[in-house]
Each structure stands twice: as structure tokens, then as C-alpha cells.
Amino acid sequence: MIDGIGLQEILIVSTIMFFLGIYGFFTRKNLITILMSIELILNSVNINFVAFNKYLYPNLMQGHFFSLFVIAIAAAEAAVAIAIIIDLFRNIKTIDVEKVSSMKN
Predict the structure, then answer these.
(1) The CATH number of the domain where 71 resides is what?
(2) pLDDT digits (tens, 9 = 90+) for 26-36
(3) Which stretches does DSSP call E strand in the chain?
């Protein structure tokens, strides 16, 4: 137990975050909210990395390094996704997923 919070509570929060991200990804039609759902999924994975690292290998830092790597990948993914969303909005004047049929111009 770390500071009164056990592994089970951390995993419950992480699981809730993960499934909220999955739900948002499959139900939303706005590209920005879909991107936010993907970020929520990645952050729940980061919580798992850090929690398992702290409880299984408290003297090592592998979970933290994996988490930093996932954060860097998520930042690059967000930058590319936002660039695509801006380009779609300039060309089609919408960011609704159902109204975007192709990426060609």
C-alpha cells in the first residue's frame, strides 16, 4: 500500500478510464472528442505501467520509462491528428466523422 492507496484502487481507476476512452472512441462523431478518447486510453495505460512498476519492482524505473515513451508517442500522435483535423476542416468545413468520406482532394 502506497500512501493509503492500494494497487486495486489504482487498477479500478485505470480500468474506468480505459473503458470511458473506448466508449468515447466508438460513440462520438466529432474527431476532436475521438482524439481525446484515444489520449484517455493511453493515459490509463500509463497509470498501469507506473502502478505495476511501483508494486512489483519498487527499486527499478522501467514502468516510468515506458510511460515517458508512451507520452512522447501520444504527443506525436496528437500533433499529426490535429494537423489532419485542421486540414479536413479547411477543405470540407466539418470535423464530423460521418461527413468525411475520403482524404483525397
Answers:
(1) 1.10.287.3510
(2) 998 888 888 88
(3) none
